[in-house]
Amino acid sequence: MNESIELSIIMPCLNEAETLAICINKARGFLERAGISGEVVIADNGSTDGSPEIARANGARVVAVAEKGYGSALRGGIEAARGRYVIMGDADDSYDFVNLMPFIERLRLGDDLVMGNRFRGGIKPGAMPPLHRYLGNPVLTWIGRLFFGSPCGDFHCGLRGFNRESIRRLELRTSGMEFASEMIVRASLERLRISEVPTTLSKDGRSRPPHLRSWRDGWRHLRFLLMYSPRWLFLYPGLVLVMAGLLVGGWLLPQPRQILGVVFDFHTLFYAGLAVVIGYQSVIFAVSTLLFVSSEGLLPQDRRLNEAFARVSLEAGLMAGLLLVLLGLAGTIWAVADWGLQAFGPLEPGRMMRLLIPSGTALVIGCQTIFASFFLSILGLRRR
């Protein structure tokens, strides 16, 4: 990195010949007016319309990135950047490269990531489809704030500035549009200093359709947010299912119940047992996933999980699982003995199912506990 360069303005590019020169000249004009030592870097992702030649002719430095994808292009540009700070933005003339000083001011104050907020700065007519403005962006932003404690009010603004070394240390990995989400998620989890500044969004200047595909890329963002939050994907739903199953099961175990003329019997008890089994399996997935992703460096280390993992041994898990299996077998033997008292003839379904459903649930959970104990111990080998 050249210490004399303070700012690198990076634009990912894939066939942006119509608007590329406009964006480069706006960015270079900002650098000149602000007296900032900087460069404009075009991360070209295989353009075939002459975009690299246009970029060079207008004073930008071109970095060829062979791996396809928005995230891949930006990662390549960030690696090649020479500035201490980086501001990234699309090359479609929708972002305001003229007014970048608010980003620079926050970066100079020590912020690691400075997000643009288009909802605070202004969205010009036709600049953002209604589906994105009123559904996609607000919903995904809300999920990001809920799951990861992000302070951002515009999760998917493509105009953002950051300290280059701070973001490089995050080792971002995604190659597609979800790269924008990954940057905020990892920065939030690592407790980097994040702030927002208003910015405007204009209608892009291209005659062709944008690369973004609303439903496809929206799902990719949502999928990424879920995959990076095992607690919300597995743990919390699993705990809710287990608690609901136990409460309903405990309520129905002694006898049938009636609410507003509707009778709940062993049929409902059966599904309560299923809820406990499925929920418990989801909790196991959560713990396994958290151990794996923290070991691989995908998520920060969880202190509470590490302490629990250090206290609970394989033998303790095996004993707990074996105890549940024995309880299940005891209930099963009781049911068979009761059947024998009836000369192995017809039985009253409600009474028998109130023995078999809890017994079967204990057997399944006990076996899951034994298997999970071994699996978690295998995951822990690398950590030790």
Task: List key phrases describing it.
single chain, 384 residues, alpha/beta, Spore Coat Polysaccharide Biosynthesis Protein SpsA, Chain A, 2 domains, 7-stranded mixed sheet, two-stranded antiparallel sheet, 9 strands, 57% helix, elongated
Overall description:
The chain has helices at 20-34, 51-57, 70-80, 101-108, 118-121, 130-148, 164-168, 179-189, 214-227, 230-252, 266-295, 303-311, 314-341, 349-383; strands at residues 7-13, 38-44, 61-64, 85-88, 113-117, 160-163, 194-198, 257-259, 262-264. The protein contains 14 helices and nine strands. With 384 residues, it is of the alpha/beta class.
In percent, how helical is the residue content? Answer: 55-70%
- The percent range for strand residues is 5-15%
Query: What's the alpha carbon Rg, rounded to whole Å?
Result: 28 Å
Physical arrangement of strands within the biggest beta sheet: 3-2-1-4-6-5-7
Instruction: Tell me the CATH topology of the largest domain.
Output: Spore Coat Polysaccharide Biosynthesis Protein SpsA, Chain A
Tally of discrete structural domains:
2
CATH superfamily annotation of the largest domain: Spore Coat Polysaccharide Biosynthesis Protein SpsA, Chain A
Number of helices: 14
Query: CATH architecture of the largest domain, please?
Result: Alpha-Beta Complex
What is the subunit organization of this protein? single chain
End-to-end C-alpha gap:
37 Å
Largest sheet, strands/sense/barrel: 7 strands, mixed
Number of strands: 9
Q: Indicate the mean pLDDT.
A: 91
The assigned structural class equals: alpha/beta
CATH class of the largest domain: Alpha Beta
Based on Cα principal axes, name the global outline: elongated
Please provide the ordered H/E string of secondary-structure elements: EHEHEHEHEHHEHHEHHEEHHHH
Low-confidence parts lasting 5 or more residues at pLDDT below 50?
A: none
